[in-house]
Design a protein that fits this description.
Layout lengths: L2 H14 L3 E5 L2 H11 L7 E5 L4 H9 L3 E5 L9 H7 L4 E7 L8 H11 L3 E4 L7 E2 L2 E2 L6 E5 L12 E5 L2 H10 L4 E3 L2 E2 L10 H8 L5 H18 L12 E2 L5 E4 L3 H10 L19 H4 L5 H9 E4 L7 H15 L1
Parallel strand pairs: 2-3, 2-4, 4-5, 5-8
Antiparallel strand pairs: 1-9, 6-7, 6-12, 8-9, 10-11, 13-14
C-alpha cells in the first residue's frame, strides 16, 4: 500500500467523481469490506439479484447473513418493483449489479433505499465506466465496489476498490482491509489481509489515460453488432444511460445449439450465467423453493459473444455472418 496504490485510488476516484476510494486485492474482498462497514452480521438479510455472479452472494455468506433473492427485469438487472416486497425488519442492505455493464434503474432503487433507510451497495464489477443520467456507475450507492480482475476493462490482474462519499465508511474500510488495524498493532475491527500491492496498482495507473478510449471503442463495436445482427434480442437499455459493454449479450431461443455452432466455427462465447444464483448448490436452500421466472428464462437464452477493443471489423463480420446464418 505504497505511493502507487495511493495514486491509483486518487486517479480512479477523480475519474468517477466520488470523494473516497480504498484499493483492495479483489472485487470480492471489496464486497466483504462493504458489508462489514455497515455492520452486516448474523440474523441480517441482504437483498440481491437472482441473476448475478457468485461473488455477490458469497460476500453475504461471509458475514453470516442471509441472501434474499429478487427477480430481474428486461435490463437483466434487479427489478425495483420487486425489491420492496422482499424488505423485512431484518433487511440490512440491498446489493445491486449492472449486468454486463448495463446501468440499473438507480432513481427507483435510491428512492427505495431512502424510504426504508436501507443502504444501497453497488456491486460495480461489470460497470466501471458506464453512466446513468450523466453520472458514472460505481458511485450511486452509499458504498460501491468494483473489480480489476484480468477480464475487466481496467485491470490490475487481480484487484478491486471500494468507493464512497461517506468519510466514516472510508476510514473504516481502510482499517478493515488491513486486518482491522486502527493503530500499529491495535485492532478495533475484524479485518483481513485485503491489501493491494504497489506493483498491481502501477499496472492500473498505466491504463487510466486510455480507459475512455477503450470504452468508446467497445461502444462502437456494440453499435455495429446491433446494426447487423438479425433475429436476436438484447437486454433493455434505459433512457439516459451508457453501457461500457463489458459483455455484449444476446438473447436467443436456441442458445445451446447456437453456442455449440459458434464454438465449432472458432468463435468463443460465454454463457453468463447458466443458472440463477438461487439455483446454485451453495445457495439453493436460501431460495426456499421460490421461482424467479425472468432470471430462469434469461439463463436459458443468454449468450455473450466476443467484444473487446482489439476485435477487428473482419472478425466482427465473421461472427455476424455465422450468427445470422444459424438464425436464418
Amino acid at each position: 500500500m505504497g505511493p502507487e496504490v495511493k495514486k491509483f485510488e486518487e486517479e480512479v476516484s477523480s475519474y468517477l467523481g466520488i470523494n473516497y476510494a480504498v484499493a483492495v486485492n479483489s472485487g470480492t474482498s471489496a464486497l466483504d469490506v462493504a458489508l462489514k462497514c455497515i455492520g452486516v452480521g448474523e440474523g441480517d438479510e441482504v437483498i440481491i439479484p437472482a441473476l448475478t455472479y457468485i461473488a455477490t452472494g458469497n460476500a453475504v455468506l461471509y458475514n453470516n447473513a442471509t441472501p434474499v433473492f429478487a427477480d430481474i427485469d428486461e435490463t437483466l438487472n434487479i427489478d425495483p418493483s420487486l425489491v420492496e416486497d422482499k424488505i423485512t425488519e431484518k433487511t440490512k442492505a440491498i446489493i445491486n449489479i449492472d449486468f454486463g455493464g448495463n446501468p440499473s434503474d438507480y432513481s427507483r432503487l435510491l428512492k427505495i433505499s431512502r424510504e426504508y433507510n436501507i443502504p444501497l451497495i453497488v456491486d460495480g464489477a461489470q460497470s466501471f465506466g458506464s453512466e446513468y443520467n450523466g453520472k458514472k456507475c460505481c458511485t450511486h450507492g452509499l458504498i460501491n465496489t468494483t473489480s480489476f480482475h484480468a477480464a475487466k476493462l481496467l485491470t490490475t490482474i487481480e484487484g478491486g476498490m471500494i468507493f464512497t462519499n461517506d468519510e466514516e465508511i472510508f476510514q473504516k474500510a481502510r482499517c478493515i482491509r488491513n486486518q482491522g488495524e486502527t493503530g500499529k498493532y491495535y485492532h478495533e475491527y475484524l479485518g483481513n489481509n485485503y491489501r493491494m500491492t504497489d506493483i498491481l496498482a502501477a499496472i492500473g495507473n498505466s491504463q487510466m489515460d486510455r480507459i475512455d478510449r477503450i470504452i468508446e471503442m467497445r461502444r462502437e463495436k456494440a453499435h455495429y453488432y446491433r446494426e447487423n445482427l438479425k433475429n436476436v434480442e438484447y437486454p433493455k437499455e434505459l433512457p439516459n444511460t451508457k453501457s461500457n459493454y463489458f459483455l455484449f449479450v444476446i438473447l436467443v431461443d436456441e442458445r445451446d445449439k447456437l453456442n455449440h455452432y459458434l464454438n465449432r466455427n472458432g468463435i468463443e462465447t460465454r454463457i453468463t450465467y447458466p443458472m440463477p444464483i438461487s439455483e446454485q448448490p451453495v445457495f439453493k436452500k436460501y431460495s426456499r423453493g421460490e421461482r424467479f421466472p425472468v432470471a430462469e428464462e434469461v439463463s436459458r437464452r443468454v449468450l455473450s459473444i466476443p467484444l473487446h477493443n482489439k476485435l477487428s471489423r473482419e472478425e466482427q463480420d465473421y461472427i455476424i455472418e455465422k450468427i445470422n446464418a444459424f438464425l436464418g
